[in-house]
Design goal:
This protein is an alpha/beta fold and 242 residues long. Helix content is 40%, strand content 17%. The chain has helices spanning 20-42, 57-68, 85-92, 110-117, 161-164, 166-170, 190-200, 217-241, and strands at residues 45-50, 74-80, 96-101, 127-131, 148-154, 174-178, 205-208. Strand 6 (174-178), helix 7 (190-200) and strand 7 form a beta-alpha-beta unit. The longest helix is centred in the C-terminal third of the chain and has 25 residues, at 217-241. The radius of gyration is 20 Å and the shape is globular.
Length: 242
């Protein structure tokens, strides 16, 4: 049987969809903006944490929950292709965490976050953290409605990553150089990675951290608490001006 020929007629209508990738990102941005508005209405600081797989995101969030869990009303959305393992680890230290299982998709999208937010109450929440899927490529293109994007780069990954994956560092506000306790054993230059990252994004803040020996963890937690306070104060200023 001959294969049916595809139509060559031009589609007629108000809008012609000609690039599915661009329209996917536009749809994502629409939902992301809805998330941003919802966070503004509820005065919730939204942080999107990205990195390669195995950089230490979950371990860092465990330490974060231990240190500031009683200082700020915090919830965490965790993205992974399969399993509840990371959310279980966070619940084990008392964090209110919900797993988003992407089923093979290598990044979180705004509609996944929206569905995740519907999975628990946001009443009284001051800080919502998203732990993105471990990947320096795809998550860089998807706005999740966050106030800040924080990217980890582990000393175990090598110091050449910023120039190889520039979009992630361009779209981040804070770089966390993680597993700094392993520096004596690895050919990794913090100076080189910071120079490359700031060559891409001159405004990038940098902290060196280790969840094993606690280096930089207090600074990280203070950064979060300060950002929460800033958002709360900005909301009060707007309310007083109305």
């Amino acid at each position: 049987m001959d294969k049916a020929q595809k139509s060559t007629k031009t589609a007629r209508g108000t809008v012609t969809c000609d690039n599915t990738t661009m329209h996917l990102l536009k749809a994502n941005d629409f939902v992301a903006e809805s998330i941003r508005k919802k966070m503004a209405e509820k005065n919730i600081l939204l942080i999107n944490i990205t990195s390669s797989a195995g950089s230490g995101k979950t371990t860092l969030l465990q330490e974060t929950a231990r240190r500031i869990g009683d200082k700020v009303n915090m919830k965490i959305l965790v993205g992974d292709l399969e399993t509840e393992r990371d959310a279980d680890r966070l619940r084990d230290v008392g964090a209110d965490a919900l797993q988003i299982v992407t089923g093979g998709i290598c990044h979180l999208e705004a509609q996944m976050v929206w569905q995740g937010m519907e999975g628990f109450s946001l009443d009284g929440v001051e800080l919502l953290i998203i732990e993105n899927v471990g990947n320096l490529v795809c998550p860089a293109s998807f706005d999740l409605g966050e106030d800040y994007r924080v990217t980890l780069i582990a000393t175990t990954e090598g110091d050449d990553k910023p120039k190889k994956y520039p979009r992630m560092f361009l779209t981040s506000e804070l770089l966390l150089v993680s597993k700094i306790d392993l520096l004596p054993y690895l050919p990794f230059s913090v100076d080189n990675v910071v120079a490359d990252a700031r060559d891409i994004n001159p405004n990038l803040e940098v902290l060196e951290i280790s969840s094993i020996n606690d280096q930089g963890i207090d600074e990280w937690c203070n950064w979060l608490l300060n950002k929460v306070a800033e958002k709360q104060e900005a909301a009060k200023a707007v309310a007083n001006a109305e």
